[in-house]
Amino acid sequence: MQTQTAGYGAPTTAASPATNGAWPADDSKPSTTQPRAHPRLYAPKYKWDALTNGLIAADPYLSYWNETIIGNASKTLGDPVVPYNIDGGLTGSGVLDVAREIKLKIKNWAYAYKITGQSQYQDRIWKELQHATNADGDFGSGNDIWNCGGHFLDCAEFTNAFAIAFDWLYDNWSKEQRDQIRGWIVDHGLQFGQAAYNGSLQNNWWTGAAPGKGSLINGNWNCVCNAGLLAGSLAIIDDDPSGIAKNLIDNFLIDGAKANCFQGAYSDGTWAETPNYWYFGTTGAAEIVSALETAYGQDIDLNSVNAGFSLTSLYHMYVQGMTSLFDYGDHGPNKFSSTANSLLLWGSYFKEPRYTLYQRDHHDASEPYSMFWYDPSVDGAWWNGLPIDKHFDNKDTEWGTARSSWSDNSGTYWAMKAGKLTGHQTHGDLDIGDFVFDAMGQRWAGDLGSDQYLGYGYFSSEAQDSPRWTYYRKRTEGQNTIMIGRANQLVSAAPTVKFESTGTSQGNMPSLSLDTKDTAYMTIDMSSAYNGA
Q1: Do 387 and 504 meet the contact criterion of CB atoms below 8 Å apart?
Q2: Distance, CA of 410 to CA of 116 (rounded, Å)
Q3: What residues have CB less than 8 Å from 454, skipping those under 6 apart?
Q4: What is the pLDDT of residues 334-367, one digit of tens each?
Q5: pLDDT higher at 489 or 408
Q6: What is d(CA 233, CA 227) in angstroms, rounded to the nearest whole number?
Q7: SS (H, E, C) 168-183
Q8: Which of 229, 143, 147, 154 shows the shortest CA–CA distance to 193?
Q9: pTM for the whole thing?
Q10: Strand pairing of 378-379 and 399-403?
């Protein structure tokens, strides 16, 4: 009697991909000076053709995702248009939730229309586009209805959503509709992006142009804002009388992303903000890389920009415990279409099939980007040969973790944090020594996450006397760590860490494959956090 173990091999890209499904050659490769014909954002025509010409049917993952996406698109056809509600709740994020919900729905409807050809999906997109530009008089007021001056993330996500609608359905819109969508992208999005980079829009710190912001720029804001503006610019660049699209691409967006967004991963792959903000930042970063590659065939060469970016997928894998994330710091607003599907892109980009294999089995994989970023020729088990313990040693956010197994969620997992307490876009806690612990399918020690973003002084600063550290969830008292005299840890603390591990890796079977003598421990000298106590 034999056990089927073929799928448990080391992660690889099949030597003969034609035998188990693969993308065909790109028959219309773009030049670096002339953008590809539409569609050119994330999803070029040759991939649409391959999907409908048998690739979906040939691959179980693509088949399941396709069914799920079209199902989601169909279920939301009858939804009312997304209302213009300014978030005054926990996160205080303007109309960001509105923008991201619209983006998610437009992606699903546009994908469903391209696959099925059913006009109901295109009609529903047009209805949402008109509403989100105040054509019905019920979506904001004034010139800045996308809230570009107040909270530019909102503006960027609206611009990205409209760019996808314009580009993916370009041949299906009438000339009048194309002209309208193009005008909306420029008037409500790109002109504000140009104003931000030119310094005439006050809330422009995320561009890197505002002095004194330091590492605040290196993270999700710069990624999301540049991704949205880049998508909008690439969608219309060959038919933009204003010239704004070309100006943004040539002079600001790519260089700005290299200098800031792509510095969001530290040298060990740890995200500069928090494990939850990783989703927003890496989704934006992946959109930037994907859009440039599909539109111009341009490789941004992240290895030379920041080698740590090739490791941020590993960070995401290790920061996931048996039950949930080691979710230190702030959690952020609703993620909507900010998923972990960047791993599917990074798997091919960095030639690390392990990333692709890991993400394809996760609950958030059923999403339109997956249909184009996934490489169907990957094979093997993502956990095969992967160490079960790891020390992330960059001093900015040093931390360590160990688990009993990658494939048995009833096992044990711990993770513990050291690193600097400042420089994380004011999303961190006073939490040196903080830890989580999972066992028997339960989290026994966890993190409390965000407090009220609109609370007094919540984002005022990371100084020792900042009002931020008066909030229980942010101060030392609210962490799984040592508190002395009910005082907060010192924001200037510089802990030192010793991490030891026998270095055991998962074997080539999902169970009964570990060295039972595996040992890992982490100790932190925390004395610098307690003012000599």
Answers
A1: yes
A2: 42
A3: 88, 89, 90, 92
A4: 999 999 999 999 999 999 999 999 999 999 999 9
A5: 489
A6: 10
A7: HCHHHCCHHHHHHHHH
A8: 229
A9: 0.96
A10: unpaired
The angle formed by the CA atoms of residues 516, 414 and 438, to the nearest 5 degrees, is: 95
Mean pLDDT lowest for which of 138-147, 210-219, 233-242, 262-271?
210-219
Whether the Cβ atoms of residue 235 and residue 185 lie closer than 8 Å to each other: yes
Question: What's the rounded Cα separation, in Å, for the pair 300 and 423?
Answer: 26
Q: What's the confidence (pLDDT) of residue 214?
A: 45
d(CA 448, CA 473): 6
Q: Is the dihedral of CA 522, 489, 271, 405 positive or negative?
A: positive
> Cα torsion for 199, 201, 205, 206, to the nearest 10°?
-100
Q: Which of 110, 84, 109 is nearest to 97 (CA)?
A: 84
Block residue for tokens 């993952």: 61
Distance, in Å, from the CA atom of 439 to the CA atom of 365, rounded to the nearest integer, reads 26
**Run of H or E residues at 442:** strand 442-445
**What does the DSSP assignment read for 208-246?**
T-STT-GGGGSSHHHHHHHHHHHHHHHHHGGG-TT-HHH
Would you call 517 helix, strand, or coil by DSSP?
coil
Number of alpha carbons in the 13 Å side-chain half-sphere of residue 409? 9
Neighbours of 116 (CB within 10 A): 14
Q: Residue for token digits 């932190």? A: 524
Q: Can you tell me which residue has the tokens 């009220």?
A: 452
Strand ranges (E), 296-406? 378-379, 389-392, 399-403
- Distance CA(42)–CA(455), nearest Å, equals 38
At residue 517, the pLDDT reads: 66
Q: How confident is the model at residue 96 (pLDDT cuts 50, 70, 90)?
A: very high
In 3D space, the residue among 418, 406, 351 whose CA is nearest the CA of residue 381 turns out to be 406
pLDDT mean across residues, the chain: 93
Q: Please report, as a single letter, which amino acid is at residue 242.
A: S
Given this model, what pLDDT does residue 240 score?
96
Count of residues for the chain? 533
The angle formed by the CA atoms of residues 437, 442 and 448, to the nearest 5 degrees, is 60
The strand pairing partners of 389, in sequence order, are: 402
Average pLDDT over residues 173-189: 98
Helix (DSSP H) and strand (DSSP E) numbers for the chain? 17, 9
Query: What was the pLDDT predicted at 344?
Result: 98
Identity of residue 475: R
* Integer angstrom CA distances of residue 285 from 212, 254, 330: 24, 11, 20
- Residue-level pLDDT at 138: 87
User: What are the structure tokens assigned to 447, written together?
Assistant: 């993190």
Answer for the pair 105, 78: CB distance below 8 angstroms, yes or no. Answer: no
Q: What are the CA-CA distances from residue 116 to residues 65, 69, 111, 123, 367 (Å)?
A: 15, 12, 9, 14, 16
- The residue ranking higher by pLDDT, 203 or 361, is 361
